Amino acid sequence: MSIFSVLKQIERNLESFTKAEKSVANYVLGNPAQVMEMTTKELAAASQSSEAAVMRFCKRIGIQSFKVMKLELAKELHTKGDGIPEIVDSPFQLEDDPKLIIQKVMFNTIQALQNTEKMLSVKSVSKAIDQLDQAERIFAYGVGGSSVVVRDFTQKLLRINVNVFRSDDSHLQMTMTANATNKDVVFVVSTSGKTKEVVDLLTIAKKRGVTCILLTQNGASPARRLADLVLTMSEEEHNLRIGTMTARIAQMAVIDALYIGLCSKRGQEVFERIVDTHEAVQHLKK
Predict the structure, then answer these.
(1) To which H or E segment does residue 199 belong?
(2) Which of 43, 70, 235, 278 is the most buried (most CB within 10 A)?
(3) What is the number of other CB atoms lying within 10 angstroms of the CB of residue 265?
């Protein structure tokens, strides 16, 4: 059963909406059943906004049209209370027992993946694959929890003989970026898009004329404004969190999609590389 939630997406992105979009959001949150029967014009009037604001609002939560949003609302309201116990669909608590912890982790992970699938633009993913394929060199960068995702992406790209460079040292990464050219690509993963090191690195890359691809959560951020191409995942976690869990899983899924897309684009030679690297590593296991 799908657990994509329009209402939760609205709640999570509430602070990132413009004033007009927030008016629409608050009206939808307070009157979801009525909104299902409305036209764009009627919702604009009821929320004291505009039809343009309604359309922007839909796209902000990963839905391409008002009609689709009403369909998603209808599905959510129809299935509300069925299948998913409310206690599972709730924040982690110190008194949670291991069984409930497992249920919550699994539920949140599946929800994050489904939300990101709704949010992610196929056109942007296709363009990112093309840019990565054409790049002479790829400089991959991430800070903190995002660095784990970047390390995984780097390992995958090295297996298919892609010239990719990564460092956990921000000074060294900045040095590499300063030597990049317009034939290269800087690929950055940042959950918030607000990390100072990420913003500084993207600023240098832009001055060098380097193509910048950013994987980040939905919502306005300094990094998003600097990137040439943004791959948007749903906003599952905020500044205060136990750890980057669902965000990391969603990021890894996007990374895997880029990797498989790149493999498909490069054809049979890629699989020969994978076999060769696999056999090379097997010698270490003897």
Answers:
(1) helix 196-207
(2) 235
(3) 14
pLDDT digits (tens, 9 = 90+) for 39-51: 999 999 999 999 9
Task: Name, in order, each residue with C-beta under 8 angstroms of 228's C-beta and a sequence gap of 6 or more.
Answer: 211, 212, 213
Side-by-side strand order, sheet with 229-233? 164-165, 138-142, 185-189, 211-217, 229-233
In a 10 Å sphere around its CB, with 0-12 CB exposed, 13-18 middle and 19+ buried, how is residue 238 labelled? exposed
Nearest to 156 by CA among 272, 256, 267: 256
Could you list the residue range(s) of the whole structural domain that residue 268 is in? 122-285
Q: Give me the residues paired with residue 187 across strands.
A: 140, 213
Overall number of domains in the chain = 2
**Count of CB atoms situated within 10 Å of the CB of 55:** 18
41: domain CATH number? 1.10.10.10
Q: Which amino acid is at 185?
A: V
**Which range among 13-22, 142-151, 247-256 shows the weakest confidence by mean pLDDT?**
13-22
Task: Please check whether residues 254 and 135 belong to one and the same domain.
Answer: yes
Residue 281 pLDDT greater than 90, yes or no: no
Contacts of 248 (CB under 8 A, 6+ apart): 145, 148, 149
Digit-coded pLDDT (tens) for 220-237: 899 999 999 999 998 765
